[in-house]
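Re-run with default settings, no changes from the original entry. Doing this only to confirm the output is reproducible before filing.
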Amino acid sequence: MNEIGGGRSLEVRRLGRTRYEDAHHLQEALLAARVAGEIGDVLLLTEHDPVVTVGRGAGLESAGTVNVPIVAVERGGEATFHGPGQVVGYPIVLLEESRRDLHRWLRGLEEIVIATLLDFDVTGERKAGFSGVWIGPRKVCSVGVAVRRWVTWHGFALNVATDLSGFRAFQPCGLDPDVMTRLADHVAQPVTMAQVEDRLAENATRILGFEHQSG
């Protein structure tokens, strides 16, 4: 999946740790501005306070008995956990008419994560019938998107050093919670969040065909 950007620049904003509510409000504001043509394409990279989000594919009851906030959101998919040690990426991107295929967009987001894992000598892959990225039989990244007037929002959540107990009180993405893994358990040397964000930004720019503009 190449040339989504078609020579446009991609502004990468690294937000640090955020409350989910605050990042969601920022997404909404950027989405409206991008639909109106007031801004260009933006990739937000952040790390959330603990929260479980539930997509359109499930009801709030799918979050089980978690003791963190539960939020219904606009993306596809089911329930998943966000928390410290996880890099969440939200691309606010206009899909040109020739690229208006959401399945292709999802595969592109997965490709960005697979390339990033490879930068740390870890092999990521897709699994037939599922979205997201896997390391062998275990899932390391969840993907879920929404679109408004062909501007995308929501995105991917890559477990870097996440406390995986956050997934264990429910079935993340409808799966056994023990299927979840994190990059930290598959590398010989410790990896920082900043290193992962660096590679995600570079890979998103390259794979989607954008010019890179850091924010």
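The first helix runs from residue 20 to 35. The mean pLDDT is 92.
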